[in-house]
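[step 3/7] fold_predict: job queued, chain A
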Amino acid sequence: MHRDIKPANIMITKKNEIKVTDFGIARIQSASATKTGTVMGTPSYMSPEQVAGKKVDGRSDIFSLGVVLFELLTSERPFKGDSIATIMYNITNGEPSAVSKYNPKLPPVCQTLIDKALEKDPDKRYQTAGEFAEAIRKALGQKQ
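[step 4/7] structure written:
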C-alpha cells in the first residue's frame, strides 16, 4: 500500500517504464499509520476512507489511481473545491463530473473504468491493482 498515489509520484523512465516513487508514507512503521483516526496523503487524491481517517488497504490506492486516470484523460480533477475541507467533503459525499464533460471524444468505457475505481465503498471498487489493470487492458482490446 502506497497511501499517496498522485501524478507527482508516478514517473516514466527513458525505457518508457512506469515507476511509482516516494514511498515515504508507505514506509512509516508506527501503528498510527493504519489505525483509525489518522489521515495521511495528498487531499485531492485521497480515498473516502483516508479522508475519514479509517483504516485503509490497497483499494485506497486504487481510488487514488482512479483520480489520476480521471485527471490524465480530462486535465481536471474529479473532486474540486476552493479549500481542502471542501475537496475532502466532495470526495466523501460528492459525485465526480462525467469525463465526457471535459473530453467528449472519450469512449463510454473510460467512464465505466473510472466509476468503478472511484466507488465510495471499497467493496465495490476494483479489489486489486491487477484487476484494475486487466479491466483497462480489456477496454483497450489488449491481451494480458
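[step 5/7] annotate
The chain has six helices and two strands.
Strands lie at 10-12, 18-20.
exit 0
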